Amino acid sequence: MKAVGIVGSPRKGGNTEYLVNHCLKAMAEEGVKTEIIPLAGLDIKGCNACEYCFRHPGECSIKDDADEVIKKMKSAEAIVIGTPVYFGSATALVKGLIERAGFIGPRGCYAGKIGGPLAVARRAGKNFTFMELMQWFHMMQIINPGSTYWNVAIGREKGEVVRDEEGLMTAWNFGKNIAALGKKLFG
């Protein structure tokens, strides 16, 4: 089984990257092949509603870095998307990616995969952001195994998330649950 962990922060080496890595490490302990995909520094635009993908399934009129990320999402059995909370919502990088991934992929191309979101906030907005991304996972028919709490953590400055023991435990247990479910579904 292969899992990709997407880091939707424009800041490299921050709390979101740490949390996604932590989740992937839990999966790797169970034999899951993992790959982290930081979006920082990539050019990913949002959907422009041109409907090109409706006429050309699997393709997008926008040529940027989203194509390679989406290919990796399609080829993995598990997808985790982590985002910091910006003004009560996911980052523009994440929104652009999931808009395009949802439209570019032939209907049902994510069905039966496993995954879910991770959200990191200084204080507020994490629950809304978590649910905002869960809606995408639900619409893509991606199975969410859950965890011991919502997949959210607290941290603003780089490294602060390591002090959120409950947030780290939740991300860790989420990773373990993805691996356990993956073994049952994919062998």
The count of DSSP E runs of length 2 or more, i.e. the number of strands, is 5
Give the SSE order as H and E letters: EHEHHEHEHEH
CATH topology: Rossmann fold
Based on the coordinates given, report the CATH architecture. Answer: 3-Layer(aba) Sandwich
Main traits of this protein?
single chain; 187 residues; alpha/beta; Rossmann fold; five-stranded parallel β-sheet; globular
Protein described:
With 187 residues, this protein is α/β, with parallel strands linked by helices. It has a single domain, classed as Rossmann fold (3-Layer(aba) Sandwich). Helices cover 41% and strands 16% of the residues. The chain contains six helices and five strands. The chain has helices at 15-28, 52-55, 66-75, 92-104, 126-139, 165-186, and strands spanning 2-7, 33-38, 78-84, 114-121, 152-154. The chain has a five-stranded parallel sheet with strand order 2-1-3-4-5, sandwiched between helices. Helix 1 links the parallel strand 1 (2-7) and strand 2 (33-38). Helix 1 (15-28) packs across helix 6 and helix 3 crosses helix 4. The termini are close together.
